[in-house]
Write a structure and sequence with these properties.
Blueprint (H helix, E strand, L loop, with lengths): L2 H16 L17 H20 L9 H19 L16 H17 L1
Amino acid sequence: MEPGEFFRELWVEGVKKHFPGEPKAGYVVPWAQTPAWERASAAAVHQLVADLVRLSEGGASKLSREQKGRFVALCWTAQIYRHFEDPKPGYVADWEDLPAWQRETDSDIFERIEQSL
């Protein structure tokens, strides 16, 4: 499985676990139906997390769960700006403004990528 696809699977898993009620279809669409920009972004963010974990030589394991989630969220926001000139404010919201389910999902993603290395 490609890193981007792994990232996407972690996202879908997190949404199903943490989203209150029924998530929007776009949140859980399978990899094969994921738009190209989102596939590229998933691969890029996976790589950034993996690089941080590797280059920190164990230091990343000392980050709090919130710090790990913030890193994923920030990397994703940078990808949104890469692909969209004027994104909706909700797509580039600061950590504090993200819904709890999304913060939990982002934290889960970091931890699972970390465990996979």
